[in-house]
Amino acid sequence: MRAREGTVGSNPTPSATFAPLGSGGQSHKLSLLKQILVSKIILVSNRLPIRVKNTKEGFKFAHAAGGLSSGLDSFQKSGNYLWVGWPGAYIISSLEKKARELKKKLISNFNYYPVFQSQKEIENYYGGFCNSTIWPLFHYFSKTATYNKSFWQSYKKVNESFRDAVLENAEAKDTIWVHDYHLMLLPALLREKLPNAKIGFFLHIPFPSFELFRLLPQRVEILKGLLGADVIGFHTYEYARHFLNSVHRLLGLDHSLGQINTGERIVKADAFPLGVDYEKFNNAHKDIKVQTEITKLKRKIGNRKVILSVDRLDYTKGIPQRLEAYSDFLERNPLTHDKVVFILLAAPTRTKVEEYQVIKKQVDELTGRINGKYGNVGWTPIWYLYRTFDFTELAALYSVADVALVTPIRDGMNLIAKEFVATKRDGRGVLILSEMAGAAEELGEALVINPNNKDEIVEALKKGIAMSDEEKISRVRLMQKELAHYTEKWWVKSFLERLEEIRCIQDNLKKKILNKDSRDNLAQNYAKAKKRLLLLDYDGTLVTFAATPEQAKPDKDLLNLLSIMSKDTKNELVIISGRNKETLDEWFGDLPLNLVAEHGAWIKEKNKEWDLVDNISSDWKKEIYPILVRYVDRTPGSFIEEKDFSLAWHYRKVDPGLGMIRCRELSATLNGLTPNFNLQYLEGSKVVEIKSDQINKGRATIGFLGSKKWDFVLALGDDVTDEDIFGQLPGGAYSIKVGLGSSKARFNLKSVRDARALLQNLVI
Ligand code: ADQ
């Protein structure tokens, strides 16, 4: 986000909600601040949305606008907030007298809480890891990205100082909303100290595809950092999908509709496209200052058509490519000479980073060359302005422009495109927009171009300049309808609502998690009981999933635990699994326990032989097997497991995206076929299983329940097939789902480790 010179002026009035704090010690003021801001929103971003000037008369402040600060403007006007961030580069140590003075002013006047950074940190964290590693990599400039250990050390350190600043201010009920790529470790750092805090994170730049993200040496740490949040927001679904894919590939965590189960919590990744303050831009023409500016501009422009572009001077924005395309346009359309003017606004940015110095030189030279080649005494083809512009100037330029040329090579969103369309009150404007900008997902009526295709840009310019008013208006109106709805306020609201929703889901899950009291109660009842029935699923309950079914063998500790439990004469232990009977025999055949194989098709009671529960047909297998073979052929890494009365198609080793698509296709195919054969298909964890609908774990459960009068029943299971067990249990039984997620079970346990600890605890 680019700071823009603002209109707040040098003597800001205190915010309406918070009076300046009275005199007294700093700590007193801070605790007072804490009291006032009960249940507030703590916004955290690298930069505070303010420009500070240290003058002889004291500090002067100017509002610094940018994507983030305009998005969050609504808070500043009405909300109960505290904004934590860096106030600017020139104060080096927080111990300086000046720093203390500035801190006092920022808190009392704006509710801004400063985080100071040393010069070295600014160089290595901001210039280094943020803008020489993450920024280029996340914008697909992988060759420009530099990987340097000291950049990373500094990034960690600064993220920790932001954590400390938030901790100094956070109260239990607060919502903490962290912004952007500078602070990707912060959610987890906060979660460590505040396990129950409500934390959101929003990324303002693209999240790259896995192929790019995997290049980052600290990729795992970054993902774990982000997963400390409850909701992780992106501008587009594409970016959210890339993130989810990386989480799966690097951390092995799956998701369901963007909800990731970390084992500890549910985290939601979702798209929240940032909009603009539509009313403000759409009504800008009423502003007398804007009108004056428009008149001045029109006088200078005359009858020429105006092409406008506005950016920070960043290599991701495609400015040289755009200039080359404009040059070609002039070359191929000599009649347009002196009839068009290209106003190129470029705001200085990150001027100390080498790549930015290179791009500046390139743009300076190109502009000079084009103006020299095509211009004449009365006409300069490019008006190149290298500075920031305030709202009045920008609104006037948007108003007079006929065409906005927005051609980033990559851009998280791009608000310029939206601001231009919103300002076009009369609808007479053409937006040429790069398909690589997040905004292209919403602004389909723009002339969408590939920024690397010069010819396409030239054609779009030609088309745009010649476009009839009727066509312009119809395109702009459609885009305005979208923009008027999806504003920056909508963005804030929908993000915060989603955060509440996910907290609600988490709370409901938490309520069902077997807490200490229920655990003690279970242990007491177990100890008292003389006839206990213990029904235990195997995969995902007693052991975690492995790449292939054979690899999930019981380990020594587990065999030891099951041995102790099954040898206790008060216990009737049943392993109730979807596995085939041979495997269960091989693993547990020596123990005095009961085995249920293939979801209940086979039962082997203690000291007896395997018994087939029903006269079950398996004739259907010859029809279904060839279908599964076709899926194996089309899906590298998948395989079929054949059991006596069921078939399973496993895709754990398949590329996650492909696996998901094929799983859906297979389910759709089976959906049409299974009723003809009285079959049931189940989607398990990376497996689709087809079995006769006569068998299920519930029937086997009924059999064991009815065999005695039990005074303690415990069932543990993790997936959909275990719901049939839970559904058959009497009221007082302990039914426990292993893993977070909804279930008929009375309780949840977070993990296999917790399930095993529970059983272990019963036998000591
Ligand atoms: P930026 O890369 O800064 O932000 P952008 O969305 O184009 O990109 O601009 C943000 C704001 O800065 C806009 O309100 C715009 O008016 C202002 N701005 C940009 N250039 C300016 C100039 N030359 N003079 C004056 N003002 C200017 C990052 C991401 C984007 C994402 C935003 C918001 O890179 O992809 O859209 O954050 O999330």
Helical content stands at 40-55%
The pLDDT mean sits at 89
Structural class: alpha/beta
Strand order of the largest sheet: 5-4-1-6-7-8-11-10-9
Number of helices: 27
Q: Could you give the distance between the termini?
A: 59 Å
Low-confidence runs (pLDDT<50, min 5 residues)? 1-37
Small-molecule components bound:
adenosine-5'-diphosphate-glucose
The value of Rg in angstroms is: 32 Å
Label the overall shape: elongated
How would a crystallographer describe the biggest sheet? 9 strands, mixed
Strand percentage: 15-25%
How many individual β-strands? 29
Description:
The chain has 764 residues and is of the alpha/beta class. Helix content is 44%, strand content 19%. It is built from 27 helices and 29 strands. It has a 9-stranded mixed β-sheet, sandwiched between helices. The protein has an 8-stranded mixed β-sheet with strand order 22-21-20-19-18-27-28-29, sandwiched between helices. Strands 14-13-12-15-16-17 form a 6-stranded parallel β-sheet, sandwiched between helices. Helix 22 links the parallel strand 19 and strand 20 (594-597). Helix 6 crosses helix 7 (186-193) and helix 13 (319-332) packs across helix 17 (454-466). The two termini are 59 Å apart. The site of adenosine-5'-diphosphate-glucose (ADQ) has 24 residues, from helix 2, strand 12, strand 13 and helix 16.
